[in-house]
Amino acid sequence: MATLVEIAAQIVASHASSTPMTSDQLIFEISKVHSALKNLEAGEPVEGVEEPKASMTVKEAFKKGEVVCMLCGKGGFKTLARHLNTAHGMKPGEYKKQFGIPGKQPLAAKNYSEARRKMALDRGLADNLAKARGVRMANIEAKKAVPAKAAKPAKAAKAAKPAKVTKVAKAPKESAKAKVA
């Protein structure tokens, strides 16, 4: 079985593969993970394990040109949903709940949302959506208006089918060369 130091090194190595770290940071992380594993093995509470608190306000995190992750502090995102899923294994609803972000607040930069909205309007997607909703509502209303189907009448006996007519094979035509000869 692997020792606690080996397990801690594996944990930090997997973390370091996705996050660039200096050698001092690696050593500090290994000692921190090792002590946490040691405390867990002894049944003691792990120190420093708290729910992460926002180091910035919602207003600071959602800028006009970018979105900054309030969990790890990384910025430069146009939208935050993919980062939350891949880096933190978190759904947008959980993230909003954890940091008290209003439900209607999009997890996207304001410029990005405006550009997407403008592009949709230029392509006429709003008109297409309105037409599709109208057709859908008409179909729903039509289904409501149709009374329940009456019982089907019993099937009549099948009429005798007429015999199939087969084609008579024609004799092959003589080619023009054969006539001349």
From TrEMBL:
Belongs to the ros/MucR family. Residues 145-169 have a biased composition (Low complexity). This is MucR family transcriptional regulator. InterPro entries: ROS/MUCR_sf, ROS_MUCR. Residues 171-181 have a biased composition (Basic and acidic residues). Pfam families: ROS_MUCR. Residues 145-181 are annotated as: Disordered.
